[in-house]
């Protein structure tokens, strides 16, 4: 369960950096886009940690954790595919990413960010697949709930 807490904390660190970036500072703007990408990488590790925690827990607790993880995925759909497209950006920008091959389309993917107050998102439009993305604020809230559900499950 330790990894789950470490990656949950990493999400909070990235969220704090994203929120404190200054909109009128070009360097800060670039840093925010880097932090948004790193948030997605930490998010994937957080999801893996939650899955592992559910696998290693006693059966009843594991079931509760898996249900909480399923709720998380319903709230934050596409997080795993988003991480895949960002980590393998070279393949997706070349039109040869896993999802593009699966869809039989080889057009380049486009990544974009939105910023505004507490509403930040990272998105990738993949030809033949469509846009996938996450809004950071709701993702942090869903991660907080997953950690709380895990704590309740394991006692």
Distance between the termini: 12 Å
What's the helix count? 7
What pattern of helices and strands is seen along the backbone? HHHHHHEEEH
Low-confidence segments, given as residue ranges, are none
Number of domains: 1
Helix/strand/pairing category: mainly alpha
Mean pLDDT: 93
Q: Tell me the radius of gyration.
A: 16 Å
Strand order of the largest sheet: 1-2-3
Shape field: globular
Say what oligomer this is: single chain
Largest sheet: 3 strands, antiparallel
Name the helicity range.
55-70%
**β-strand number:** 3
Q: What share of the residues does DSSP label as strand, in percent?
A: 5-15%
Could you characterize what this model shows?
By secondary structure, the chain is mostly helical. The chain has one domain (2-154). The protein is 68% helix and 11% strand. The chain has helices spanning 2-20, 26-56, 59-75, 79-87, 89-93, 98-103, 136-154, and strands at 110-114, 121-126, 130-135. Strand 1 (110-114) and strand 2 form a beta hairpin. Helix 1 runs antiparallel to helix 2 (26-56), helix 1 (2-20) runs antiparallel to helix 7 (136-154) and helix 2 (26-56) runs parallel beside helix 7. The radius of gyration is 16 Å and the shape is globular. The model has no long low-confidence stretch (mean pLDDT 93).
Features:
mainly alpha; 3 strands; single chain; 155 residues; 7 helices; three-stranded antiparallel β-sheet; globular; 68% helix
């Amino acid at each position: 369960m330790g990894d789950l807490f470490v990656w949950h904390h990493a999400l909070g660190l990235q969220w704090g950096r994203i929120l404190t970036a200054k909109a009128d500072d070009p360097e800060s703007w670039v840093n925010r886009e880097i932090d948004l990408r790193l948030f997605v990488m930490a998010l994937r590790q957080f999801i893996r940690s939650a899955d592992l925690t559910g696998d290693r827990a006693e059966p009843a607790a594991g079931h509760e954790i898996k249900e909480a993880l399923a709720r998380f995925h319903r709230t934050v759909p596409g997080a795993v595919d988003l991480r895949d497209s960002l980590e393998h950006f070279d393949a997706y920008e070349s039109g040869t990413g896993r999802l593009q091959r699966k869809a039989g389309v080889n057009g380049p993917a486009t990544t974009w960010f939105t910023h505004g107050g507490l509403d930040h998102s990272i998105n990738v439009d993949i030809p033949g697949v469509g846009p996938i993305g996450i809004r950071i604020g709701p993702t942090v809230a869903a991660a907080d709930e997953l950690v709380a559900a895990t704590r309740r499950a394991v006692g």
